[in-house]
Amino acid sequence: MASKRLMTLNLTSWLVLLLCGFGAGCGSATKKGSEQAAATQIDVCHGYSCKYRSKLVLGASDARRFTSILATGHKSAEAERTAIAEAVSYFERRTFDATKIRDEPRSKLGAAVRGQMDCIDESTNTHTLLLYLADHNLLRHHTVGMNASRGFLVDGRYPHSTAVIRDPQGVKWAVDSWYAPMGAAPDVLLLSEWKPRGFLSSGALN
Asked: Model-level pTM greater than 0.85?
């Protein structure tokens, strides 16, 4: 069984959960078999703050696909981040097989709808995928970090969360798929650049 890793929630994370509705802040992946290419069952979060969970089985063909994608990132950390973004895109296309609903970009506050994902769902699912990639020894230049949050409302920003990876120098990078529609490339940027963003502008998040 692959390891389950719980997010350590800081004050901002609790505000995110309060706004979106209480839900599990962690994902899980369970291997079925002893080989690396064995089927792995993924819990896909959706419906806002993991209100719903749908089972997705990643089989040998998925393992080969992820191996092929991550192989393009072997040369450098920068190349691997590009490969991780492609892996997230592929994974999100596969999650459609579990939810049967195509997730739209972003989310409407308080509109908990089956298949639609808020930032808690998105960051949890991406974190689960990153753990899957790490468990299959596909990450050469990065380790998986704890999810990060930003925004307190009083600072003019909605609370928002992202998955995180850490490069060989210990620098943290945000892997944020919330802004894009299902299957599109996520934002991958320095966490130090991601943290100050999200101020309200004409009713929209930047």
From this structure: no
Greatest CA span in the chain, whole angstroms? Answer: 52
Rounded Cα distance, 154 and 171, in Å: 28
- The Cα 43–Cα 52 span in angstroms is 9
For 32-87, how does the pLDDT look when each residue is reduced to its tens digit (9 = 90+)? 544 445 789 999 998 888 898 999 999 999 999 999 999 999 999 999 999 999 99
Degrees, nearest 5: CA angle 141-145-150:
125
- Please name the residues in contact with 89: beta carbons below 8 A apart, sequence gap of 6 or more: 183, 184, 185, 186
